[in-house]
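We store chain and fold; example below:
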Amino acid sequence: GINAEYGGGVSVELEEDYDFHLRQKKFLELEKREHNVHNKKENSFNWNALSAYVKETNNKALQTCLRDVLYKMKSMVGDTCSGEHVINSVEEMFTLFATFDQDLDWREITRVKDKFGHVDEATLRSVHQSYMHLCEELPEFFSDEVDEEEVVPSTMFGSKIKFRPAEVVKFSPPSDEESEEEEEGDVGVIAATENATRNNAVAQQLRPENAGWLTMKCRELYEKEPQPDLSLEELTSALYNHISSQNSNEQLQDMMFGLLGFEAFDLIAEILANRRVIREPSGFDIFSDDSGRSNTTNVPHFKQERAPTIAAQVNILTEKEKIWMKQLRKEERKLKKEAATNFRAFDPEMLREQREYALMTANLMPALQPRAASQPDLPYVFDVRQNIKQTAAFILGAKITLPADCVNHSKPGYEEYTFPPTKVTPPEWTNNFIQVKDMDNIGQIAFRGLKQLNRIQSVVYETAYNTNENLLISAPTGAGKTNVALLTVIRLVKTYLENGVLQRNKFKIVYVTPMKALAAEMTKTFGKRLQGLGIIVKELTGDMQLTKAEIQQTQMLIVTPEKWDVVTRKSTGDTGLSQLVRLLIIDEVHLLHEDRGSVIETLVARTLRQVETSQQMIRIVGLSATLPNYIDVATFLKVNLHKGLFYFDSRFRPVPLEQTFVGVRGTNKFKTRENMDVACYEKVLESIKKGNQVLVFVHTRNGTLKTAERMREIAQTEGELELFSCVEHDKYQQGLKQLSRSSQKKLNFLYRDGFSIHHAGLPRADRNVVENMFSLGTIKVLVCTATLAWGVNLPAHTVVIKGTEYYDASKGEFVDIGILDVLQIFGRAGRPQFDTSGHGIIITPHDKLHKYLMLLTQQHPIESQFIKSLEDNMNAEICLGTVGSLEEAIGWIKYSYLWVRMQKNPLLYGITQKMREKDPDLHHYLADLIKKAALLLDKCRMIRYNRDTELFSATDLGRTASHFYIKHPTIEHFNSTFKPNLVESEILNCVSQADEFSQLKIQEEESVELSELYHSKQFEVKGGTENVYGKVNILLQTYISQLHIQSFSLLSDTLYVAQNGSRIIRAMFDIAVHNGYPAVASKLLSLCKMLNHRIWAADTPLRQFNVIPPQKLDMIERLKLTIDKMRDMPAREIGHMLHHVNMGDKIKQCVNHFPCVALDCVVQPVTATVIKIELTITAQFEWNDRWHGKVSEPWWIWVEDTNNDHMYHSEYFSLQKIHVVNQESQKLVFSIPLIDQDNTAYIVRMISDSWIGAEATEVISVKGVILPQDHLPHTQLLDLQPLPVSVIPNPEYHTYFPFGHFNPVLCVDTTA
């Protein structure tokens, strides 16, 4: 032997103990077996052969059966999968069915789920029935094609093999725990160590001599709670099949919770922690024998001392041997995978040989193995869970992250888990708080009223206030992230100070917030802070529109993601705004994980590309309440991990939070609801007895009153109502007096007993009173909706979330509230000035308790949602001009969060290991994604895709879709249904079938009320009440008619339909204008205004003024008084006709304010086929800022041909206030083609963009216009003789001309 130093300088003697030829022989045997398996696969069931056979026989029933199988399999594997992938899945499924019995049992369904993942059981049984039908009809086909294999008994393979571990040098004392990963280094050293490398207590129990451990655990569980559908043997077998599958630990955990129940939490955690030990072939049967007991009594036990990991016997292999070793390991992993997915289909002899090979190679694992790569040491990441996540005991965040002092109580009707506030304090060095007086003058102005910054603001201060680094700040709700954003705003303001003067026109700040309610609060907060610096802050959302002049005067915009996406999508007009942005702040950046996350990815990618192309700095700041994979998000935002990444865990919360999770049980939904009321009351009562106030959050406006009344009723029944009373409070009478004047009598009734309600449907005055009284303490329990959590800063010691389901109109169903809402509501728990801790309680059905436990204690990684809207986002970039080719599109995707997560978690995005090996940089994968999206957009005529040059170009249809946020399936629908002669009923039907409404559903409880609304329709409804598009049509007309709706889900759907319907109709109007369809354009614009004002075109236009009583408006309509008639009538006469003389003046004033214009046209021929029109526009109404705004009124002007129904010219026109007030005319000049002078009648039409009934027309007659001739005659030249140059008197000028005589034309000029 030779001497070598290995593992800390310990000298060991190397000796040859491995027979290379034996390994080579084993590899050849495995290679031969793999070749046989491959041949067998080639001869297995083939879908193409079956479909061809059925087609040849022309058997319609079997053809229908095959189509049904394809349809069901596509729903199982996913609608986005290719046809080839679906067919391959059918082949694998039928091959698996061949080994099953005639009826599917539980274990066989488990095998299918192990192979295909989670599948719908009903769909699976339907596919199996189709398979059995095919077998009956074509028995000879299936018997020939599908080979049957011997079913291996349900025992651990290799249980009959007896072996002894290879002898090793024995050392004492035992070594530390070794790593489980195999090291493949360039040295080519393979160390022979003992097989057992784990030293924790559970692993000791899972050694081969205790192979019945799993059965024993299942028996204990079975004795406590017998499974009605499974025997003990079936339970153990099913559990082991799950453990041996290729599913991830997360999937396995969900399966085991479904199989064993939440009560088996500890057992599931123990299994997950030692999964590899359990599924490793131990050499003995882990299952029970015929008697049901673990058969381990006659098994010989082998014990040996552990060898130290610092030194072991090693072999030095040749290069050829290293290649063989690598191939053997690869083959072993492949066979193990096949064994796990189809356990019973293996030949016992092959399993035995595989087990022998596995045992032989176990002793060749290297003694020294590398530890898993730890997370980089980041200076500003304060994550106490970071080290826990790197240990083997961390079970998907469920076991270790539950605090040791977590309290679990099971009460009648519900179960609860309570997590006490954290007792760990932040690091000592974070106690250095920044004093406001030490900041510069600009900072002191912005932070006036504060003495010092809080802990996280002080930690972030240096980077945020004195550098331009991109930032990502993840901190608990209520920790002061808003002031961190303010620090970055002041940093930008200081850079634009020149000689003490702020250059306000040189920069813009954009603050992106997820909700409109939060946008209003942020506008108020920043506006107050920055007022002293002269910074104007405005809200720009779907509800708050700004004129260009207002945007130009504003330095900071508070926007929603969708609104800013629309603004930056336009290639003209608003690009000047986006070019001025120097700071982009994104609040709640963890929305990346939700459906709206793709919008944030688009905004960031667009901003980063703008920085790259313009070479101008735009600072990006991300704020978030919770971020599990904060490094990935920081990478996406281009944040320097060592300078700009700040992660603060729960230790930094201003008020420590106690969390309680309550899972309500119930035999039916009514019993569950009753138990939820009881649980809510008991939790509220506990807090009230401690002298605290409580906020109870529910998810409907009606639910606030019902919950408050129910709690009051329970308190009265239990004789505990006096505990809620605030009569003794010195401010009680003040609130009682104010609420006595309220129209909401229930408020006064509830207030007397210490209860109240709050939601957006209450009058503003009542909400103010309730908020004020709760702040003063005269209300102990306030039941409210989430509006209070987002829009109003009203904290309480205890907050309760009662129920976790709410109706989402965008999805058309009841869904669970997201983590964002839960964190925001919990952020209201605890008053920093008065409380040392807060208490957040969430009450949910018991079957969802596990979900929220995992969400708030484990935090799943945030994944990208970008692929779901790839086509629409790509169309927006193409229309914007930032993406024009395939390569540019690939580069664009690499700026997204999708690219970051695609490299970290490729399997989630459909990237297999083989694909990664063939395409390491994923260039081809991204190219395929882009090509598929481009082909789809080209099919919809939204872009033009040149397959040869791989270039993209935008179309008018694509620009319309981009500007109005229309999905590509809707555009495809318009391509087939949009016609120039559509009437109102057809337009509404076309809009109703848009893809934006496809997710809506018809609820059973809505059918009666929907039928009643159907009979109140104005236009015919295609589809009736049985179809979704019929429901959408009915709700659109119901919204315009302002009919009362009782059902909450119908009301939510109506608001959603109206909001999106207006946008879709606007897009259709834009399409009609581009295509030159005047008739349908007029109808579409009218429908848009009807939805905005909620009145029909047949109603009096005075309904647009909200100062006239409805009764008088009804009388005006009955008397058929038009605007033109009332314009000529005196106010007194109008009053007499309406039996209300004083009302005549108000109505006359509204008539004078109603927009009206006069048109005058002058036609001038340009050529024989082109005429110029000079249009003079004179306003004939009185301007009022309340109704018309402060700048201008928008109008549409177009010229239409009545004979051809074609629009020759159109443009958007602004009627300026200054011209109306000064009674000045505005002129507009444009040219149009002249088709036929004798038969053409042109009409100039001017329609208000916002006022129903405001329209003017002017007919243009071109019959008397004298047009120029098509071919002008040549001019006759005069008969002039050429003149010599000498005719010029001055001889000095003669030298300037190189010729001797002037031609006839020059002769004329010369003589002149």
